[in-house]
Amino acid sequence: MSGRSTRSSLGKLVSQETVPDNIVTRTMKIWNACFPNTNYPGFAVFLEKNMKNNYGITNFTKRTVKISTYLHETLGSEAMDATIAHELIHVYLWYIDSPNPWDHDEIFMDLAVALGKDDSLSKSAH
User: N or C: which end of the chain has fewer CB within 10 A?
Assistant: First the structure.
């Protein structure tokens, strides 16, 4: 019997430490909860990390617009709303500064679900 139960506890995210790699895991979890019928565009994770290195967290709006534009051109207009929601999730996860950042996930998931359901939100914003 092992003293570690990290894998079985992953769903609850009860870790005492904040590990950068958990950002990817948490993003996937939030994405799957918000958009269960839409495939997770995982390649955007690497693009996001690259943008974070290039622009830093203070320029998260610029980074989000640039990534969303790239994915819009790559995936087509029908993926735009989901793409914006995906990148907002990334921005949120990088931006949260808290001893237990996952405590804020439920509130953000409600916001992301609302964004995913409201087609007019992203269309009227541009």
Answer: N
Q: Which residues contact 54 (CB under 8 A, 6 or more apart)?
A: 63
The mean-pLDDT minimum among 5-14, 41-50, 82-91 falls in 5-14
Residue 75: count of CB within 10 angstroms of its CB: 14
What one-character-per-residue DSSP string does 74-121 give? HH-GGGHHHHHHHHHHHHHHHH--SSSGGGGHHHHHHHHHHHHH-HHH
Flag whether pLDDT at 123 surpasses 60: no
pTM: 0.37
**Which amino acid would we find at residue 58?**
T
Question: Hey, what amino acid is at 68?
Answer: S
From residue 117, give the alpha-carbon distance in Å to each of 26, 82, 92, 106. 21, 10, 19, 17
- Per the listing, tokens 């790239």 go with 70
